[in-house]
């Protein structure tokens, strides 16, 4: 505990609201009737289903595989039957429906055969990364980046420092705090496994200085001096990757770069616990701690099976009236509002916050007070970014380092004109990203078009037309196939609407 | 006088040779310039390859513009934004535009009705960007990530089993809207 801590720019001490939910032990949420498991709960490519409707599955069985490296598989959270595979509401700011596998639970909660890995310390780091990949583990702090990819990058480069992040700085959220208090040994063991997987030279577990119980739990469970425990001052957003790295090391992640560029890998405490389960028992990621809090009767942390509808969890904590409240996934600063109570808890859902609906007064013009710049932890000038986004001057926004904004929400929080600054920044970011993607697609299409033209020219030059007989064969085949296809169409049409007049299309 | 003639010749000859070289290279230089200009222009065209401009695709239209023989406002999907881009590259004023704003229609892609496709390969031949997969006498399918929705595969299909439908890509191209302003409804063409 004698590490010299550094300061990051901006930031603010916020009312935490954590007392609502951090006292009571977590509850095991009962088995829901149905589980909705989205194929895309992580950054990267969606998983591909490998079960069919009607199949029986057991808890922990693979139901959708990862075809690409930057993708993770999805496993059944309980035993039951595959009811459907189709589009259902998923956690997304625009309330999209996306492909989900729906499992009807059979109530037995029967485990699939799982197998622990042999002693991890003797395992090749690459094999350990593979186990983590196969168990579907992603960053559980909220971003959902596939863990094996981060570890793989870490292993390729020399990792000076592994940080296990338990700095849960956002107000109201206490799931990591509870997890540390209840599963400190998992986290420590998981931290050692991750350290082995990246061959890290040092390992730090960081928490906030207002988490005394969690600290005690870690101190008790820690049986060695290979891991350092650090409590950082409580100030939002101390748990942001870049802010935490700065606090612990005094170093800055380069602009546009990643922690690994300065030899650091950072993982959330819940991810470490998931790694522990994956390695020692072969358990895939199928449940997580979720804080259910806000304007509800019994705020609490629940251990929830992935795929459980948000509504079940919230009702469990005594909430009934969905019409008067807003549901926020995540915390009040960075969370996203959703309107559909049936969306499922997914790998990245750390908190469900219920707030009273209130109509906010409209935004006023910027008075250039500069408060937003004072609190920005990324050292940006939010008001300048705002003016650029307002004018759709995206070049200017990028020049002013729009993409360094971590969307912490502090600027909007302090703005006396109530300007929803972060929404402007998200707008500008997606506009820029979509534009870039469009350009890339256009470039691909251009190449395909030119290639096709060249091929056509060559074909025209080299191949004389086929002999007469072959052409006749072809014509006959076509004629016959066309009439078959037509009659099939008629048949289908008649089956569907027998009285439809022929001829209208 | 007689002695100076060969001398004069000696001076003039290299000059003549240089001139000949220049003449020989001039047309080629011009071609190079057109090729380069074509590339620059092609890069700002939408690459829908829909032929609504009257040319066989974006690159052929770009070439025609580069040669300076056609109007700048023929690209339909690109609309006036593309026209302005072309004018900027050519250093010209955009014509008092008769072109509409690019119609911001929801992107579409072609969908093949597998129950009716007879595997005649005609659509594959028509598709300018190789967005259709299939082999003779097999059911064909459109690759949604590549199809530009140009519709060129529709007319050749002998059993009319291809149609255009809303692109599923819009799911992934989600964009946050600007706060405080409702997105104006799309003009209906
Ligand atoms: S806090 Fe709000 S009003 Fe003040 S400078 Fe920033 S954007 Fe403008
Ligand atoms: S949301 Fe972005 S711009 Fe605003 S304070 Fe946070 S990092 Fe700075
Ligand atoms: S109209 Fe535009 S998009 Fe279509 S082929 Fe011509 S240049 Fe390309
Ligand atoms: S599949 Fe059809 S609509 Fe799509 S790009 Fe090819 S020809 Fe155009
Ligand atoms: S043109 Fe029509 S029938 Fe022929 S292969 Fe294409 S979709 Fe099938």
Give structural attributes.
heterodimer, A: 505 residues, alpha/beta, Rossmann fold, six-stranded mixed beta sheet, four-stranded antiparallel beta sheet, 13 helices, 35% helix, globular, disordered C terminus, B: 189 residues, mainly alpha, 3-methyladenine DNA Glycosylase II, Chain A, domain 3, Alpha-Beta Plaits, two-stranded antiparallel sheet, two-stranded antiparallel ribbon, 4 strands, 36% helix, elongated, binds iron/sulfur cluster
Q: What is the assigned CATH homologous superfamily of the domain at 126-283 in chain A?
A: NADH-ubiquinone oxidoreductase 51kDa subunit
Oligomer: heterodimer
The termini of chain A sit apart by 76 Å
Main β sheet profile of chain A? 6 strands, mixed
What is the radius of gyration of chain B computed over CA atoms, rounded to a whole number of angstroms? 26 Å
Number of H/I helices of chain A? 13
Q: Look at the helices and sheets of chain B and give the structural class.
A: mainly alpha
Question: pLDDT below 50 for ≥5 consecutive residues: which ranges of chain A?
Answer: 498-505
The structure class of chain A reads: alpha/beta
Radius of gyration of chain A: 27 Å
Return the CATH class of the largest domain in chain B: Mainly Alpha
Low-confidence stretches of chain B: 181-189
Describe this structure in words.
The complex is a heterodimer of chains A (505) and B (189). Chain A has 505 residues and is of the alpha/beta class. Chain A is built from 13 helices and 17 strands. Chain A has a six-stranded mixed sheet with strand order 1-14-13-17-15-16, with helices on both faces. In chain A, strands 2-8-7-4 form a four-stranded antiparallel sheet, with no helix packed on it. In chain A, strands 11-10-9-12 form a four-stranded parallel sheet, sandwiched between helices. In chain A, a hairpin with an 8-residue loop joins β5 (62-65) and β6 (74-75). Helix content of chain B is 36%, strand content 7%. Chain B is built from four helices and four strands. Chain B has helices at 4-44, 58-67, 79-90, 122-126; strands at residues 108-112, 132-133, 141-142, 162-166. Chain B has a two-stranded antiparallel sheet. A two-stranded antiparallel ribbon of chain B has the order 2-3. In chain B, β2 and β3 (141-142) form a beta hairpin. Chain B is elongated and about 90 Å long. The termini of chain B are far apart. The chains are: A alpha/beta (505), B mainly alpha (189). Chains A and B meet through α12 and α13 of A and loops of B. The complex binds iron/sulfur cluster (5 copies).
């Amino acid at each position: 505990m004698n590490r010299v801590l550094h300061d990051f720019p901006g930031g603010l001490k916020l009312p935490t609201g954590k007392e609502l939910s951090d006292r009571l032990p977590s509850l095991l949420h009962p088995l829901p009737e149905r589980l909705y498991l989205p194929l895309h709960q992580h950054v990267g490519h969606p998983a591909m289903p490998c079960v069919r409707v009607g199949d029986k599955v057991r808890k922990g069985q693979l139901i959708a595989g990862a075809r690409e490296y930057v993708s993770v598989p999805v496993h059944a959270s309980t035993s039951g039957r595959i009811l459907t595979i189709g589009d259902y509401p998923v956690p997304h700011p625009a309330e999209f429906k996306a492909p989900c596998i729906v499992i009807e639970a059979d109530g037995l909660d029967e485990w699939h055969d799982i197998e622990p890995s042999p002693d991890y310390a003797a395992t090749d780091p690459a094999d350990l990364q593979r186990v983590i990949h196969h168990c579907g583990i992603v960053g559980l702090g909220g971003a959902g980046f596939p863990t094996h990819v981060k570890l793989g990058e870490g292993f390729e480069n020399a990792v000076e420092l592994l940080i296990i992040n338990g700095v849960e700085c956002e107000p109201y959220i206490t799931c990591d705090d509870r997890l540390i208090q209840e599963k400190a040994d998992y986290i420590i063991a998981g931290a050692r496994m991750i350290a082995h997987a990246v061959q890290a030279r040092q390992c730090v577990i960081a928490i906030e200085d207002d988490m005394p119980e969690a600290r005690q739990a870690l101190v008790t469970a820690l049986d060695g001096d290979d891991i350092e425990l650090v409590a950082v001052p409580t100030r939002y957003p101390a748990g942001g990757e870049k802010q935490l790295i700065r606090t612990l090391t005094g170093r800055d992640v380069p602009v546009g770069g990643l922690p690994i560029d300065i030899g650091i890998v950072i993982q959330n405490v819940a991810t470490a616990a998931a790694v522990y389960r994956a390695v020692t028992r072969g358990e895939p990621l199928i449940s997580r701690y979720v804080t259910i809090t806000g304007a509800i009767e019994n705020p609490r942390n629940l251990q929830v099976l992935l795929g459980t509808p948000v509504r079940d969890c919230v009702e469990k904590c005594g909430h009934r009236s969905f019409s008067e409240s807003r549901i926020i996934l995540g915390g009040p600063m960075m969370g996203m509002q959703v309107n559909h109570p049936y969306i499922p808890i997914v790998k990245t859902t750390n908190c469900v916050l219920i707030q009273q609906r209130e109509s906010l007064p409209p935004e006023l013009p910027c008075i250039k007070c500069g408060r937003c710049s004072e609190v920005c932890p990324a050292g940006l000038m939010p008001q300048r970014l705002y003016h650029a986004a307002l004018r759709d001057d995206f070049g200017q926004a990028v020049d002013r380092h729009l993409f360094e904004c971590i969307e912490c929400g502090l600027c909007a929080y302090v703005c006396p004109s109530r300007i929803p600054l972060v929404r402007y920044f998200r707008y500008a970011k997606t506009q820029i990203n979509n534009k870039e993607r469009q350009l890339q697609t256009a470039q691909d299409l251009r190449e395909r078009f030119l290639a096709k033209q060249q091929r056509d020219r060559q074909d025209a030059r080299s191949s004389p037309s086929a002999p007469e007989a072959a052409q006749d064969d072809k014509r006959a085949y076509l004629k016959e196939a066309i009439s078959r296809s037509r009659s099939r169409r008629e048949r289908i049409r008649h089956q569907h609407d027998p009285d439809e007049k022929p001829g209208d299309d | 006088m007689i002695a100076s003639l060969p001398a004069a010749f000696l001076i003039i000859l290299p000059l003549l040779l240089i001139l000949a070289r220049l003449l020989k290279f001039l047309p080629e230089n011009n071609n190079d310039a057109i090729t380069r200009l074509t590339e620059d222009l092609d890069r700002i065209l939408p690459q829908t390859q829909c032929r609504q401009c009257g040319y066989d695709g974006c690159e052929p239209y770009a070439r025609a513009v580069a040669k300076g023989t056609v109007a700048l406002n023929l690209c339909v999907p690109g609309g006036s934004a593309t026209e302005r881009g072309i004018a900027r590259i050519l250093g010209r004023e955009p014509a008092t535009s008769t072109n509409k704003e690019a119609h911001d229609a929801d992107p579409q892609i072609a969908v093949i009705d597998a129950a009716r496709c007879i595997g005649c390969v005609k659509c594959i031949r028509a598709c300018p960007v190789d967005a259709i997969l299939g082999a003779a006498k097999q059911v064909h399918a459109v690759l949604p990530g590549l199809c530009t929705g140009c519709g060129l595969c529709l007319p050749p299909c002998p059993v009319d089993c291809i149609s255009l439908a809303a692109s599923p890509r819009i799911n992934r191209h989600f964009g946050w809207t600007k706060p405080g302003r409702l997105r104006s409804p799309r003009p209906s063409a």
